[in-house]
Amino acid sequence: PAAMVACGLLSAARTAAIEGAKPGFTVNVLAPEQGEVPERIASWIVRLLDADGATGELVRLGPAHLGKALP
What we know:
Blueprint: H1 2-20, E1 29-32, H2 38-48, E2 58-61
Parallel strand pairs: 1-2
């Protein structure tokens, strides 16, 4: 059940990113693992808020992450 909810939220974020491309807003998902340091989370939030940055992306933070997550 948790995986279904996660995929649904990611799909909603990507749909919002597509719809928001013309008006110029970005939508991304940040998924920090338990125990991730707040400074690293904050730096990624700043990066993802950049108007010229990526949109519709999932960024996973943590030592167990080995690559980009795709649904």
